[in-house]
């Protein structure tokens, strides 16, 4: 009898593929199954030789400059290298290759620049003027921001004095009107300084915030001045009423002293007593 085999041996090719697939995976400490890293991958990438630099001849006026750089560099990187040798700012440079002005973000190899290619360097007067204007604007905004910061410090000091006057008035303490007026003048001087600052953008918003602060403190001082004057007027009226009452009381006492009977003195009482004790004289009357 022929006996059938219960299992068939796997082919070497399949077994080899399975072993290779198993070797490509590994279990991390957290239990996650991930593909194994190939340690030779980076080494293989680093095995490629670097791209050699090319020499570019740049004409600047009557002079020629030889610059060595990678062909995969951009025209902007070439401008930075030229800036070190010519002193021109990269933004003031214009590179012309094959009759076309090249953008700073364009790559040399894509534009067709090869070894010993010739590029013309021109000075861009329009870009230079624009950059100078931007520099002046930035310097002006920086100066304005500095001035606003100094004014803010002064306003903070004056704000403390305003708070002190507010507390004094709330407690009923007499506040001199000259003190309030002087403080208002100082705040108005800061407001004039803010109005003279030319600002734009964020600096303009900061100036507007300080202007509103100063105006708020000036309005507060006006209210304190009115409140202080009202309190002083009220106290003055009370003092006047008290003086009137005292004068009226003094006048009534004077009239009472005039019309009241005099108080008998000791000598008057003695005289009256002696007169009453004297004998009454007798008269002889005759009848006609």
Automatic annotation (TrEMBL):
This protein's UniProt keywords: Chaperone, Coiled coil
Any one GO molecular function term: protein-folding chaperone binding
Location of the BAG domain: 144-225
Keyword Chaperone set for record: yes
GO annotation (BP), single: protein stabilization
Signal peptide range: none
UniProt-listed SUPFAM superfamilies: BAG domain, Ubiquitin-like
Regions annotated as coiled coil: 221-250
GO annotation, cellular component aspect: cytoplasm
Ubiquitin-like domain sequence ranges: 52-122
UniProt KW Iron keyword: no
A Pfam short name: ubiquitin
Positions of the UniProt region annotated as Disordered: 1-22
Protein name (Swiss-Prot/TrEMBL): BAG family molecular chaperone regulator 1-like
Originating organism: Dioscorea cayennensis subsp. rotundata
Gene name, Swiss-Prot/TrEMBL: LOC120272652
């Amino acid at each position: 009898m022929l006996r059938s085999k219960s299992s068939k041996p796997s082919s070497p090719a399949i077994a080899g593929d399975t072993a290779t697939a198993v070797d490509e995976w590994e279990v991390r400490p957290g239990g996650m199954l991930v593909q194994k890293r190939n340690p030779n991958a980076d080494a293989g990438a680093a095995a490629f030789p670097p791209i050699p630099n090319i020499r570019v001849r740049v004409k600047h006026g009557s002079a020629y400059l030889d610059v060595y750089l990678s062909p995969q560099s951009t025209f902007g990187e070439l401008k930075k290298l030229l800036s070190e040798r010519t002193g021109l700012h990269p933004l003031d440079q214009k590179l012309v290759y094959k009759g076309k002005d090249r953008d700073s973000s364009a790559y040399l190899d894509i534009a067709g620049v090869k070894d010993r290619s010739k590029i013309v360097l021109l000075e861009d007067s329009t870009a230079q003027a624009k950059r100078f204007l931007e520099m002046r604007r930035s310097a002006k905004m920086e100066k304005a921001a500095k001035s606003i910061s100094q004014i803010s410090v002064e306003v903070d000091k004056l704000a403390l004095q305003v708070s002190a006057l507010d507390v004094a008035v709330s407690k009923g303490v007499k506040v001199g009107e000259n003190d309030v007026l002087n403080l208002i003048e100082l705040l108005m001087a800061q407001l004039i300084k803010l109005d003279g600052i030319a600002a734009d953008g964020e600096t303009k918003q900061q100036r507007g915030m300080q202007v509103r602060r100063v105006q708020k403190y000036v309005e507060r001082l006006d209210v304190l001045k009115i409140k202080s004057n009202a309190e002083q007027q009220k106290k003055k009226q009370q003092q006047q009423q008290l003086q009137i009452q005292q004068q009226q009381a003094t006048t009534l006492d004077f009239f009472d002293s005039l019309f009241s009977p005099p108080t008998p003195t000791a000598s008057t009482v003695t005289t009256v007593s002696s007169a009453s004790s004297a004998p009454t004289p007798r008269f002889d009357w005759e009848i006609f």
